Protein backbone atom coordinates (compact mmCIF):
# COMPACT_ATOMS: atom_id res chain seq x y z
CA UNK A 1 0.00 0.00 0.00
CA UNK A 2 2.85 2.38 0.87
CA UNK A 3 4.54 1.51 -2.44
CA UNK A 4 1.41 2.34 -4.41
CA UNK A 5 1.08 5.70 -2.65
CA UNK A 6 4.76 6.44 -3.36
CA UNK A 7 4.33 5.62 -7.07
CA UNK A 8 1.22 7.80 -7.21
CA UNK A 9 3.14 10.72 -5.65
CA UNK A 10 5.95 10.25 -8.21
CA UNK A 11 3.45 10.34 -11.09
CA UNK A 12 1.86 13.51 -9.68
CA UNK A 13 5.33 15.10 -9.42
CA UNK A 14 6.06 14.28 -13.06
CA UNK A 15 2.72 15.73 -14.14
CA UNK A 16 3.40 18.88 -12.13
CA UNK A 17 6.84 19.26 -13.76
CA UNK A 18 5.29 18.79 -17.20
CA UNK A 19 2.69 21.47 -16.43
CA UNK A 20 5.38 23.86 -15.15
CA UNK A 21 7.38 23.30 -18.32
CA UNK A 22 4.29 24.12 -20.41
CA UNK A 23 3.59 27.24 -18.32
CA UNK A 24 6.97 28.76 -19.22
CA UNK A 25 5.60 29.38 -22.73
CA UNK A 26 3.67 32.53 -23.41
CA UNK A 27 1.32 32.93 -26.32
CA UNK A 28 -0.06 36.10 -27.83
CA UNK A 29 -2.74 36.28 -30.47
CA UNK A 30 -1.67 38.65 -33.23
CA UNK A 31 -4.78 38.42 -35.39
CA UNK A 32 -8.08 36.57 -35.64
CA UNK A 33 -9.79 36.80 -38.98
CA UNK A 34 -13.05 35.37 -40.27
CA UNK A 35 -12.47 33.68 -43.61
CA UNK A 36 -14.94 32.05 -45.97
CA UNK A 37 -14.76 29.36 -48.61
CA UNK A 38 -17.33 29.15 -51.37
CA UNK A 39 -18.74 25.63 -51.66
CA UNK A 40 -21.66 24.07 -53.54
CA UNK A 41 -24.19 24.89 -50.80
CA UNK A 42 -23.01 28.48 -50.24
CA UNK A 43 -20.25 29.99 -48.10
CA UNK A 44 -18.48 28.02 -45.39
CA UNK A 45 -17.21 30.32 -42.62
CA UNK A 46 -14.14 29.56 -40.51
CA UNK A 47 -11.62 31.47 -38.41
CA UNK A 48 -7.89 31.96 -38.91
CA UNK A 49 -5.71 32.76 -35.90
CA UNK A 50 -2.11 33.98 -35.96
CA UNK A 51 -0.31 33.33 -32.66
CA UNK A 52 3.25 34.04 -31.51
CA UNK A 53 4.64 31.59 -28.94
CA UNK A 54 7.79 32.30 -26.90
CA UNK A 55 9.47 31.70 -23.56
CA UNK A 56 11.27 35.09 -23.26
CA UNK A 57 14.56 33.16 -22.99
CA UNK A 58 15.54 33.10 -26.64
CA UNK A 59 12.94 30.81 -28.21
CA UNK A 60 10.07 32.04 -30.37
CA UNK A 61 7.75 30.71 -33.08
CA UNK A 62 4.86 31.91 -35.23
CA UNK A 63 1.87 29.65 -35.83
CA UNK A 64 -1.30 29.76 -37.89
CA UNK A 65 -4.47 27.77 -37.23
CA UNK A 66 -7.83 27.53 -38.94
CA UNK A 67 -11.00 26.08 -37.46
CA UNK A 68 -14.75 26.51 -37.32
CA UNK A 69 -14.52 28.39 -34.02
CA UNK A 70 -12.00 30.83 -32.54
CA UNK A 71 -10.88 28.70 -29.58
CA UNK A 72 -9.89 25.72 -31.74
CA UNK A 73 -8.19 28.02 -34.26
CA UNK A 74 -6.06 29.55 -31.48
CA UNK A 75 -5.27 26.10 -30.07
CA UNK A 76 -4.14 24.88 -33.51
CA UNK A 77 -2.06 28.03 -34.01
CA UNK A 78 -0.29 27.51 -30.65
CA UNK A 79 0.61 23.91 -31.59
CA UNK A 80 1.84 25.11 -34.98
CA UNK A 81 3.91 27.84 -33.32
CA UNK A 82 5.57 25.30 -31.00
CA UNK A 83 6.44 23.17 -34.05
CA UNK A 84 8.19 26.12 -35.73
CA UNK A 85 10.33 27.35 -32.82
CA UNK A 86 13.70 29.00 -33.42
CA UNK A 87 16.46 29.84 -30.96
CA UNK A 88 17.67 33.44 -30.91
CA UNK A 89 21.16 34.55 -29.86
CA UNK A 90 20.74 37.35 -27.31
CA UNK A 91 23.77 39.26 -25.95
CA UNK A 92 24.36 40.58 -22.42
CA UNK A 93 22.59 43.86 -23.21
CA UNK A 94 19.39 41.87 -24.02
CA UNK A 95 19.77 42.79 -27.68
CA UNK A 96 20.98 41.18 -30.88
CA UNK A 97 24.66 41.08 -31.90
CA UNK A 98 24.44 42.69 -35.35
CA UNK A 99 22.13 44.27 -37.93
CA UNK A 100 19.77 41.81 -39.62
CA UNK A 101 17.20 41.81 -42.41
CA UNK A 102 14.33 39.39 -42.84
CA UNK A 103 11.92 38.78 -45.70
CA UNK A 104 8.64 36.87 -45.95
CA UNK A 105 6.28 37.41 -48.87
CA UNK A 106 6.04 41.15 -49.51
CA UNK A 107 7.15 42.07 -45.99
CA UNK A 108 10.67 43.14 -45.11
CA UNK A 109 11.92 43.71 -41.56
CA UNK A 110 15.11 45.55 -40.64
CA UNK A 111 16.57 45.02 -37.12
CA UNK A 112 19.37 46.86 -35.39
CA UNK A 113 20.89 46.31 -31.93
CA UNK A 114 20.25 49.06 -29.38
CA UNK A 115 21.92 50.28 -26.19
CA UNK A 116 20.61 49.12 -22.79
CA UNK A 117 17.58 51.14 -21.71
CA UNK A 118 16.30 51.75 -25.25
CA UNK A 119 13.45 49.24 -25.09
CA UNK A 120 11.72 47.51 -27.97
CA UNK A 121 11.15 50.04 -30.72
CA UNK A 122 9.02 48.14 -33.23
CA UNK A 123 5.43 47.94 -34.27
CA UNK A 124 2.71 45.39 -34.74
CA UNK A 125 3.51 41.72 -35.09
CA UNK A 126 7.28 42.38 -35.09
CA UNK A 127 7.08 43.84 -31.58
CA UNK A 128 5.21 40.77 -30.32
CA UNK A 129 7.82 38.42 -31.82
CA UNK A 130 10.71 40.40 -30.27
CA UNK A 131 9.11 40.64 -26.82
CA UNK A 132 8.32 36.91 -26.66
CA UNK A 133 11.84 36.10 -27.85
CA UNK A 134 13.15 37.90 -24.75
CA UNK A 135 14.84 40.81 -26.53
CA UNK A 136 14.63 43.97 -24.43
CA UNK A 137 16.63 46.55 -26.46
CA UNK A 138 16.24 46.68 -30.23
CA UNK A 139 15.28 48.95 -33.11
CA UNK A 140 13.13 47.38 -35.85
CA UNK A 141 11.41 48.71 -38.95
CA UNK A 142 8.70 47.07 -41.05
CA UNK A 143 8.89 47.79 -44.76
CA UNK A 144 6.58 46.76 -47.56
CA UNK A 145 3.50 44.77 -46.61
CA UNK A 146 1.22 45.47 -43.62
CA UNK A 147 0.19 41.81 -43.40
CA UNK A 148 0.75 40.72 -39.75
CA UNK A 149 1.49 37.11 -40.71
CA UNK A 150 4.18 38.04 -43.23
CA UNK A 151 5.64 40.65 -40.86
CA UNK A 152 5.85 38.13 -38.01
CA UNK A 153 7.47 35.55 -40.31
CA UNK A 154 9.91 38.17 -41.63
CA UNK A 155 10.86 39.03 -38.02
CA UNK A 156 11.51 35.34 -37.30
CA UNK A 157 13.54 35.13 -40.51
CA UNK A 158 15.68 38.10 -39.44
CA UNK A 159 16.24 36.58 -35.98
CA UNK A 160 17.26 33.25 -37.56
CA UNK A 161 20.08 34.95 -39.46
CA UNK A 162 21.72 36.36 -36.32
CA UNK A 163 25.02 34.74 -35.37
CA UNK A 164 27.10 35.15 -32.24
CA UNK A 165 30.66 36.51 -32.44
CA UNK A 166 32.12 33.09 -31.66
CA UNK A 167 30.14 31.49 -34.54
CA UNK A 168 31.33 34.19 -36.96
CA UNK A 169 34.95 33.70 -35.84
CA UNK A 170 34.66 29.94 -36.24
CA UNK A 171 33.19 30.26 -39.76
CA UNK A 172 35.99 32.61 -40.84
CA UNK A 173 38.71 30.52 -39.10
CA UNK A 174 40.05 33.48 -37.15
CA UNK A 175 40.52 33.95 -33.39
CA UNK A 176 37.65 35.54 -31.45
CA UNK A 177 39.93 38.41 -30.29
CA UNK A 178 40.42 39.53 -33.90
CA UNK A 179 36.68 40.17 -34.28
CA UNK A 180 36.61 42.44 -31.21
CA UNK A 181 39.59 44.51 -32.40
Automatic annotation (TrEMBL):
UniProt-listed InterPro entries? Ribosomal_Su5_D2-typ_SF, Ribosomal_uS5, Ribosomal_uS5_bac-type, Ribosomal_uS5_C, Ribosomal_uS5_N, Ribosomal_uS5_N_CS, Ribsml_uS5_D2-typ_fold_subgr
Could you tell me where the Basic and acidic residues compositional bias lies? 1-12
Q: What segment(s) does the record annotate as region Disordered? A: 1-26
What's any GO biological process attached to this entry?
A: ribosome biogenesis
Entries under Gene3D superfamilies matching the protein: 3.30.160.20, 3.30.230.10
A GO CC annotation recorded here is: small ribosomal subunit
The cross-references to Pfam families, in alphabetical order and at most eight, read: Ribosomal_S5 (PF00333), Ribosomal_S5_C (PF03719)
Q: Which GO terms describe its molecular function?
A: rRNA binding; structural constituent of ribosome
Domain spans labelled S5 DRBM: 25-88
**PROSITE patterns this protein is in?**
RIBOSOMAL_S5, S5_DSRBD
The entry's keywords: Ribonucleoprotein, Ribosomal protein, RNA-binding, rRNA-binding
Q: What is known of its domains?
A: The N-terminal domain interacts with the head of the 30S subunit; the C-terminal domain interacts with the body and contacts protein S4. The interaction surface between S4 and S5 is involved in control of translational fidelity.
What does this gene product do?
With S4 and S12 plays an important role in translational accuracy.
The subunit structure is: Part of the 30S ribosomal subunit. Contacts proteins S4 and S8.
Q: Which NCBIfam families match?
A: rpsE_bact
What family does the database annotate?
Answer: Belongs to the universal ribosomal protein uS5 family.
- Stated name of the protein: Small ribosomal subunit protein uS5
- Source species of the chain: Cyanobacterium stanieri (strain ATCC 29140 / PCC 7202)
